[in-house]
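User: Can you recover a sequence for this backbone? Please restate the input before giving your answer.

Assistant: Of course. Working from this structure:
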């Protein structure tokens, strides 16, 4: 039994993830949610892109880190974190810190305690002995494809690795779209024809799209997290690939996979922050991530320990977690989850104020901010919240990197040919561009791989996990959307890019308030007045407070309306004295962070917000400031005038932009 577990608990370790339908709890194994490579006590330790994970028989967990770390970390049984091997980017065998790795990803461990590492940036599979000595199991260090003797074989951005009881090593060879096997010093292809696509069939007739995770069960069946196909794939021992029919929640871009002692499968998703549990009969259940209390940032690594507990390496949150069973009789006291996601005050990317367009130290027009109301093509005016920061640019203009970074996602370029085509570059996402291509469709540089379809025309663009890009590098050209859309942080944990402090961005213009109104619980406006005051029935069942307001910034076109950063309200006595609890404005809406809830748009904004007339270009920002939308919280709450005595009052709305400019508007009330 783990010494760590004995010291922290008075009962035996839990038996692993619960049966379908029963609750799970997320525990923190290590990491404070900040990026770094700090060893030591587990809650103070820091990780940088903790991607792959595996657990030895004695309970020691090993984590493969990419980013600037390029090392294998270890969480010992007593809960301390240290560095086991590597630490400098490169390609060299050796013991401990003398070894060199390049963006290691998937991990597995064999019966002898040897770690198998998918060394993505080196296009190789490495082995780490129990004493920390690193050797190269297969691969030359150069990207390509070749079966044969292990020392001559070639891989292209392998990210997943697994080992069976016979010692055979299975590799998810991502950019070769193949599943490979290393057996007795030879490398062969188990399945996949080398082109991205979706097809079942024997051996080389099958097709995968950027397979990222691989696991093998007790019967020798290989299971694949087929990222680009949003699918779970099954490969029989003879190499025949099939796609199981699943019932329930379908996987979305799965990147990690594990199998428990009961034969259940687990998939970690790239962008939705969920871990799915799949029973042997094909039923899927959301194990974690159904709500924000359990939403992970990027569960890139999954592994089970000897007690059938699920360990999760949450790469974009810089944490390692365990998911444990909650015993039904103790569910109420055991459901509290550890903090998930990156720390709220995690450092923003070091952009030095650069813009994503040339000149990077100049000024560019801002045409959209985080939190603005957006509609859809079906005429729904409150469909979603705008998640980024938009910088206007002419179609075809090169999009430039604003901070030195390394590709962390195995599926970084997505949405080919779509208006929302984008590139995820570490903590930043650049959207609305032809990724890696000129306006004519030529590759910008060799780091971007153009993939031809069956008709010979470019059908995909890829850039490998581990590829480095420097500030000022061109990563695409603006598409028909005529702007660059910047997002900071992983989905569910996005920060407002205005915090990057773009050079020469100036906002001295105070926000404008067009209207302040009250609506009843049925969305009907309260309009009756007496002596210049709005009459509000105290027994009306609650009131909505709606302020219509918008912002502008220096240099923008006069017609350009932007959303606000923060809004709130204050209740005053008739003489202007703040009531108790309202000594300062209560700021109920704050877009410092992107609200993670899909329904937040209908909580932050009242009806008739957005572009409400076909063909109109003016967005109406009608904020429902009675509701709470801030700091990841979403709480609809009507204002109840019944808590006050009858009489005269003043309602004051307060709105602020990201530069601190503010505006207020007052509405005299008579409560009766």
């Amino acid at each position: 039994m783990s010494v760590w577990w004995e010291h922290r608990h008075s009962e035996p370790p839990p038996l692993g993830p619960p049966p379908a339908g029963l609750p799970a709890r997320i525990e923190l194994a290590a990491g404070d949610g900040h990026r770094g490579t700090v060893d030591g006590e587990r809650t103070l330790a820091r990780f940088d892109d903790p991607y792959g994970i595996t657990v030895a028989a004695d309970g020691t967990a090993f984590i493969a880190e990419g980013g600037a770390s390029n090392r294998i970390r270890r969480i010992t049984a007593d809960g301390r974190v240290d560095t086991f091997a590597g630490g400098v980017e490169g390609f060299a065998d050796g013991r401990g810190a003398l070894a060199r790795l390049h963006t290691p990803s998937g991990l597995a461990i064999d019966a002898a305690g040897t770690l198998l590492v998918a060394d993505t940036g080196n296009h190789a599979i490495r082995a780490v002995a129990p004493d920390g000595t690193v050797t190269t199991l297969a691969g030359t260090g150069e990207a390509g494809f070749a079966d044969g003797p292990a020392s001559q074989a070639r891989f292209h951005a392998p990210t997943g690795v697994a080992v069976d009881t016979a010692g055979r090593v299975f590799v998810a060879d991502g950019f070769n779209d193949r599943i490979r096997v290393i057996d007795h010093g030879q490398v062969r292809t188990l399945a996949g024809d080398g082109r991205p696509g979706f097809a079942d069939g024997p051996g080389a007739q099958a097709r995968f799209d950027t397979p990222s995770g691989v696991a093998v069960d007790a019967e020798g069946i290989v299971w694949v997290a087929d990222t680009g196909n949003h699918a779970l794939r099954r490969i029989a021992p003879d190499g025949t690939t099939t796609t199981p029919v699943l019932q329930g929640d379908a996987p979305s871009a799965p990147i990690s996979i594990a199998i428990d002692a009961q034969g259940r499968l687990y998939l970690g998703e790239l962008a939705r922050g969920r871990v799915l549990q799949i029973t042997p009969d094909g039923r899927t259940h959301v194990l974690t991530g159904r709500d924000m209390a359990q939403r992970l940032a990027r569960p890139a690594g999954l592994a089970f320990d000897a007690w059938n507990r699920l360990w999760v390496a949450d790469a974009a949150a810089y944490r390692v977690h365990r998911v444990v069973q909650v015993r039904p009789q103790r569910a109420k006291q055991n459901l509290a989850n550890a903090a998930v996601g990156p720390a709220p005050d995690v450092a923003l990317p070091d952009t030095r104020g650069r813009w994503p367009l040339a000149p990077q130290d100049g000024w560019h027009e801002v045409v959209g901010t985080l939190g603005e109301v957006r509609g859809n093509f079906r005429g729904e005016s409150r469909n979603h919240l705008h998640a980024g920061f938009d910088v206007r640019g002419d179609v075809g203009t090169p999009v430039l990197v604003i901070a030195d970074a390394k590709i962390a996602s195995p599926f970084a370029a997505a949405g080919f040919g779509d208006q929302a085509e984008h590139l995820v570059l570490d903590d930043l996402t650049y959207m609305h561009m032809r990724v890696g291509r000129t306006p004519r469709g030529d590759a910008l540089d060799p780091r971007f791989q153009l993939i031809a379809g069956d008709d010979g025309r470019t059908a995909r663009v890829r850039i490998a996990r581990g590829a480095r890009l420097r500030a000022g590098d061109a990563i695409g050209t603006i598409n028909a959307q005529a702007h660059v859309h910047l997002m900071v942080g992983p989905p569910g944990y996005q920060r407002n890019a205005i915090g990057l402090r773009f050079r020469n961005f100036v906002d001295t213009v105070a926000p404008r308030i067009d209207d302040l109104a009250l609506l009843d619980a049925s969305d009907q406006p309260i309009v009756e007045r007496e002596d210049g005051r709005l009459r509000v029935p105290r027994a009306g069942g609650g009131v909505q407070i709606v302020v219509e307001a918008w912002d502008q910034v220096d240099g923008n076109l006069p017609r350009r309306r932007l959303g606000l950063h923060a809004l709130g309200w204050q209740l005053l006595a008739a003489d202007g004295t703040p009531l108790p609890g309202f000594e300062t404005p209560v700021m109920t809406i704050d877009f410092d962070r992107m609200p993670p809830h899909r329904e937040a748009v209908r909580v932050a904004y009242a009806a008739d917000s957005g572009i409400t007339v076909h063909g109109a270009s003016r967005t109406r920002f009608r904020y429902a400031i009675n509701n709470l939308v801030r700091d990841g919280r979403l709480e609809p709450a009507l204002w109840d005038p019944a808590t006050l005595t009858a009489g005269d009052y003043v309602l004051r709305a307060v709105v602020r932009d990201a530069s601190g400019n503010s505006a207020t508007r007052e509405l005299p009330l008579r409560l009766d």
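That completes the design. The CA atoms of residues 572 and 579 lie 5 Å apart.
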